[in-house]
Amino acid sequence: MIWGIDFGTSTSLLSHSFRNSVRSFPLGSTTNWIPSVAVENEGRIVAGEEALQFGDLRLIRAVKRAITEGNRKKVDYFDGLEMKTVDVDQVVVAILRKVKALAERTLGGDEVEARFGCPAMWDGEQRARLLRLIEEAGFRAQYRQLIDEPIAACISWVQAQLLDGKSIDGNVLVYDMGGGTLDVAVVRVKAEPGRKPSFFVKSSSGAAIAGERVDEEIALHLESRLREQGQITGSKNNSPDRWLMAPARELKERLSSSLTAKTALVHPIHGQLDLQLSKNELDVITAPLLTEAWRAVRRALYLAEFTKGVRGRGISPHDASQSTELERLQSIDHVVLAGGMAPMLAIREDFVARGVDSSVIEVAGGSNGNPNEAISLGLAEDLEPDQLNLARPSFHLNIRWESQYTDKFGAVRIYNAYSPLFEENNTNGTPCFRWEGDSDLPKSAIGYLKVEDPRTGEELEFRIQGTRDTTKEIYFNLQSLKRIVLYPNGWLLIQSDQLTKIRVANWPFGEYSKYVDIELGDSHSPENPLWWADVG
User: Fold this and answer.
1) What pLDDT, in 10s, does the model give residues 401-452?
2) What share of the chain is helix, strand, coil (3-state, %, to 5)?
3) Which of 365, 389, 413 is the last residue of a domain?
4) What CA–CA distances, in Å, run from 137 to 7, 76, 100, 114?
């Protein structure tokens, strides 16, 4: 049985395979999810719905944001009397253990393969941290179990189309805004009923903008209005009154289907407070956040240009930079909104205002159109190894060197697995990862480019496609080395006295992959299979 677990910033969900289909499992007592919250009580971390009994003010919320925003180790919380700090990892493990315990009561725990979503913007260190916590919570942990969240949402949407008898053949842009992050991906999909669908991830991008940020801005807006009306007095803080966070979420959700929303709460100091918010006010509040979010869409569209054709035939950086944003949007056949923020009308209106036809915008989440289920449903699908790839390499690149005249040797890492290939401040507009050399490296030495598996630390071999030749290294003279550049279209350039171009045609992700397949060449427009991931 496959479990798809969406450990989210605000909520956590689980779906599971069942008789050649996938179902959402009701983790909550009245919902399909449990809140991703916890309370520290008498030295014990209480997670999920059980934590709600201690009151909204004491809840430790959004710990996933601590990993997203700086990979922080501690977060602050209110224990009912004073502010304290708690270890983020302890809270994450407690929430994951709660999910595991709730599912095992009904589904059992034998022969389970659990797969987890993670934000597309997470780097290797953040992914490794989550894997460690997954293992600590009692799950079997491997890199192959981590799937980028927008990709999982795309998979569930495609499966829903197939169940409805529809075929998909085109580019799908997934806009997944949950509680803590916005993740965007462009995926080439070919699927028809009765046949195995194929997914080719052209690009992915993200930003630390999502539902929790929106809720905070709404709460600040409500607090400002209450102060103007004299209903709240006292010193003003930069962060919103914690009492206003729950009604802020409630008003936001109601405005997904109405023009005005009202609610009330009883404040322990200020008494009953009547709260109201209009859709126009919400649009003004969210406009700066949506503008910031669109930068992630723009990045994903641009990166997708490098894998423009069928199965990713790349184009040159110069040609990619010539297309306009509208032209890139017009190459998108479907826009899929996923995550808890998907029902917000302002998101759909933002796409339409930028030239996207409203008829191609849909909500993910299966036949019932529940966008919060989309990621867990996609994670639980039984994909085979050749059905999915990721838009970033999952390996480390290292340079090892040996002195030509002494017995000295050493190593330096030039690329960490899953690091972004897009540089915001790149003056020529070309997305790439660029290593400009290290002044501490000896000049009179031979350098060896090596690939390291981040799971095991083992060195992997390069295998030259079309031959049986393998090698564990590509060597060059360090004295003449100027830079090494890794492009999203798969080309690795080693610039020294002679320009060496290598295309990485495969990267090892499954348990049995032992090689990084490469091709040697000098074309500026290579066919690009990107970095394939074995998830089967």
Assistant:
1) 888 777 788 888 888 887 777 654 443 456 677 787 777 777 778 888 888 8
2) 30, 30, 40
3) 389
4) 12, 22, 8, 12
